Amino acid sequence: MTDTTQLRAAAEAIDPLAKAAEAEKAWQAYLTALEASDGPVADQAFALNRMGDSRYYQQNMQGGLDASLEARRRLVAAGQADGEAMADTLANIATFQGALGQSDLELPLQEQSLAIRKRLYGADPAKLPAEQAKLLGLGYLNYANALYTAGRFGEAADLVKPSIDGIVTGELRDATLFVAMSSGANMLSDAGRQAEALDLAQRGVSTATQLLPEEHPFIGFAHATLAKVLLQSDRFVEAEAPARRAVDIMVAKLGPKNRNTMTALHNLGVILARLGRFEEAITLTMSGHDELRAIDPGNSINQLVNSSNAAHEAGKQAMALDLAQRAVSIAATVLDNDRRAAKGFTALALRLDEAGDAKAALENLDSIVARRMRASDTSVDNVLELQRGLFAIKAGDREAGWARSSVAAKSLEAELIADAERFELGADLASYYEPIMQMVEAAFEADKPDEALHAFELAGWGVNARTRQLLALRTSFENTPELASKVEAFETGSARLRLLSRERAAMLASDKADAASERAGQIAALSASLAQLRAELVAAIPDFGQWVRPATATVMQIQARLASDEALLITMPSRSRTFTMVITADQTVMASSTRGRPEVRALVSDLRAALDGKVPGDTASFARNAAALYDIVLPERAAAALSGRFRVAVVTSDALSRLPFGVLLPAAPAVEQKDYKSMDWMVRRHAFSIALTPSAAFVDRNDRGDRLSFLGVGAPTLSGVADLANGTAILFRGGAAAMDDLRSLRPLPASAGEIARVSAIKGFSTRLALTGDNATEYRVRQASTDRYGVLLFATHGLMDGELAGLNEPALVLTPPAEAGQPDNDGLLLASEIGTLGLSADFVILSACNSAAGRNETAPAYTGLANAFLGSGAQGLLLSHWRVRDDAAAYLSASTVERALSGVSHAEALRQAQLALIEGNAGLPDSANPSIWAPFVLVGR
Fold it and tell me: How far, in Å, CA of 317 to CA of 324, rounded?
């Protein structure tokens, strides 16, 4: 007996995943000793099952199945078919059969295994002794995994809690614990329960990092799960780091053909597709497809669907259609209750619609409903119902289609509003964009202008719009300081909560478990505080709910605001079309182009490459692209409605928000025309400004403002040559700014001249210029007690993620002589702008790419701009790309000078731009749009 006890202990001490072959030999030795001594059959079954586990990790699925089948044979022969040994054996057999592609056998066996354990121990693991709780928890986990594999995500997610309860109560501190956490996170995420999923995924990474040696395969599994949950929470920029970490570990430790490795590669591909890197995405999402199809048809459908979507976005329509058709051919073979099949039919429906066959697209979606009915699935999928309604309208059944789509749209709007306050989700709620654009399309097809306008409002209801709503609420209680203070605390606290969540994810991706745990504590405390604060606001402000939901404006209400020479231009690209709405005082036009997001992104990318100086200038090519984009965003009827409307507020999205509309050309010039000066730029016809949403357009008519004070900050004291665009500086180490690296950034001496030039403009009552050694965070904090008419920052601007460790946008100031001063560290963070209350009527961010989003994929104006919008700026002048020093100084000063003389900000900017085009500013090559066009006006 002593020999068998020692042999079992030796086998249990070996990690079956990291040393699978060694573990198998150890369990075989234990089994042999048991057989020689006629040891208990239950122990023999246990040894056989652990041998099976070891073979599983060696990719010998059949060998694993054979071992557990032998265990079952011995138990049945011994009359032990109802005990724990049989429950363990059935669970193993089920897992191996699932791995061999026999998923129809997996679920009933796991159900039998769980039934045995529930008869033995009861249903609630929290009420059991540790050992029994552990075994029951494992039973729930195995059954949940089988449900998940079968595509029954909601049922699987419901079993996550009893699984974790049992394992935690059972005091398991080995790989089983974080495997349960990661598996549970996957289930919750695919069931749409993202907040729970993210918490569990982060706990899984933290636990794995603390318990396992570096680079252990299960650490890779935990990171892969975190990446997937971040992706499905619309936090795809953050998802890339843990996804790459997972792939690196799994390829090295498990090999590229391991099932978990293939899933990790697929998820990395999906993340890259969301980041716009489609070619790489297609390759990764299809990794090991043939192997995966043989053992997991459901997940092979996911591969094909995501590859099809990436191919469409890359402009490869034939490939996209072929991949979708292949997905449906597999989807037709899986069980009706497998939710992954619906993804295949949906992908093909979209491809057919893109090809102009709405009737066939609708038939594919109807087949999903039929499958669910056969599976007795009565749940409502609002996106599916919206699409069914849209395709019905396009197929000719306008009345019934509109009725279906409008009901679904209302439900989706309610989901959007609820998700907007969930800090775990991406602030931009990107996953709602395409369904909202389908609402727009349905309204266009059904000729419903008010409904189309409201859908556009939803599409623009991003973090900026929500920030402005809370600002308006705070302003409305200026005479009730206590309430105004609570609204401000709610606003800044919500932003802080999202920042903490991003920091925690970044720390986990870097294996900084202790720091991540500290952030988790801060998140929990702040979440509780905000929940209490929200309850107080709801009690004190009866209509508080109206301030945290999208505004509702009708076409007639918008028209009532407009003068005869004004227009609201709304234009947004969708998957396959671009939708444009022009509202003037006397008419409304809805028009669309059959060229959608792939074509728009390609044109904008080419134009920006030329404007950014990333490719050699080619006048003819630039002009052709500018004219082609004009044709997409302004079809003939829309262009006619806009004609003669001098002042135009633009609401747009996606790639279109990365380009000033003034650079578009109504018609491509003759091939021989090489002179930018003589081209008919849109800026010659219209004074453009950006409105965040349709309801925000032409609301504020006080362009000049009441304050005539000026604050200019810039030209920080920097000594180096580091180039931000090339990523040569690393400003953060251990969460604090690195002073030496900060000082090494390229100095901006011309910025002092820009500030001096604006400061010298007549009309300011007070002036304060903070440049050089005075451009410190300390001095800015001192100056922030006042509100200004004009505030100018002329310095480096950073996006989050642009530099290592930087998790929010920032402006570079003069660093202090010594480190250790968090309130004076040379970086003015976006969150600090909000808490300082640093604001002005008109803010100029003459910093590199200040119109950009928080990061490379976030919507425009969600970076530094958002901080100033939240501080109360009525108008923002932002740059889309690097501005030449002399042009920046001229555009800033000229715009401010003209605005102070009584001209609207939009017209002031336009006049300054025209002066550059015509050569009246005395600057070289100033007719080139890269010189005159970088700035855009947001607001006013």
Answer: 11
- Which token pair is 451? 């409904």
Give the per-residue pLDDT at 617. 72
Per-residue pLDDT of 855-914, as tens digits, reads 556 677 777 888 888 888 888 999 998 888 899 999 999 999 999 998 999 999 999 999
Location of structure tokens 């590229």? 256
Yes or no: say if 931 and 881 are a contact pair by the CB < 8 Å rule: no
Neighbours of 336 (CB within 10 A): 15
d(CA 834, CA 509) in angstroms, rounded, equals 28
> How far does Cα 692 stand from its chain's mean position?
19
Q: And the tokens for 565? A: 């020479």
Q: Torsion angle, CA of 664/670/676/682, rounded to 10 degrees?
A: -20
| Rg of the Cα atoms in the chain | 31
HEC secondary structure over 570-583: EEEECCCCEEEEEE
Distance CA 77, CA 92 (A): 19
DSSP alpha helices (H): ranges in 170-277? 175-190, 194-211, 217-232, 236-253, 259-274
Both tokens of 538, joined, read: 């709801």
The residues pairing with 878 across neighbouring beta strands, listed in sequence order, are 845, 936
461-472 burial, b at 16+ Cβ within 10 Å, e below that, comes to bbbbbbbbbbbe
Least Cα distance to 582 among 507, 666, 638, 519 occurs for 638
- CB count within 10 Å of CB 914 equals 16
Beta strands in 417-529 (DSSP E): none
- What per-residue string of b and e applies to 265-292 under the rule 16 or more CB within 10 Å gives b? bbbbbbbbbbbebbeebbebbbbbbeeb
Helices (H), 255-338: 259-274, 278-285, 289-295, 297-313, 317-331
Residues 880 and 866: their CA atoms lie apart, in Å, by 15
Q: What does the chain come to in residues?
A: 940
Euclidean distance between CA atoms 53 and 138, whole angstroms: 15
Pairwise CA distance, residues 549 & 484, whole Å: 19
DSSP string, 859-918: PTT-SHHHHHHHHT-SEEEEESS---HHHHHHHHHHHHHHHHTT--HHHHHHHHHHHHHT
List, as one string, the DSSP characters of 499-511: HHHHHHHHHHHTT
Q: How far is 889 from 416, CA to CA, in rounded Å?
A: 42
The conformation of residue 125, written as its DSSP 8-state character, comes to: G
Instruction: Give residue for tokens 């970086």.
Output: 827
Across the strands, what pairs with 712? 769, 792
Q: Which amino acid is at 454?
A: H
Token representation of residue 688? 């453009």
Instruction: Provide the pLDDT for residue 111.
Output: 95
By C-alpha distance, which of 709, 563, 622, 655 is closest to 933?
622
- CB atoms closer than 10 angstroms to residue 406: 17
8 Å CB contact between 70 and 36: no
CA distances from 115 to 163, 411, 698, 824 (A): 14, 38, 65, 63
Taking a C-beta distance cutoff of 8 angstroms, is the pair 513, 209 a contact?
A: yes
Nearest to 234 by CA among 265, 282, 275: 275
Read off the pLDDT of residues 39-61 as tens digits, 9 standing for 90 and up.
Answer: 999 999 999 999 999 999 888 99
- For residue 494, the Cα-to-chain-centroid distance in whole angstroms is 17
Q: Which pLDDT does position 703 carry in this prediction?
A: 52
pLDDT < 50 stretches in the chain: 1, 726-735
Cα torsion for 559, 562, 567, 568, to the nearest 10°? -60
β-bridge partners, 844 = 792, 877
pLDDT at 734: 38
Which residues make beta-bridge pairs with 879?
935
Q: How far apart are the first and last CA of the chain?
A: 86
* Amino acid making up residue 485: S
Q: Is 584 helix (H, G, I), strand (E, B) or coil?
A: strand
Quote the pLDDT of residue 637.
Answer: 97
> Which residues is 790 bridged to in the sheet?
710, 842
Helix (H) or strand (E) holding 757: helix 749-759
Q: What is the model's pLDDT at position 214?
A: 83
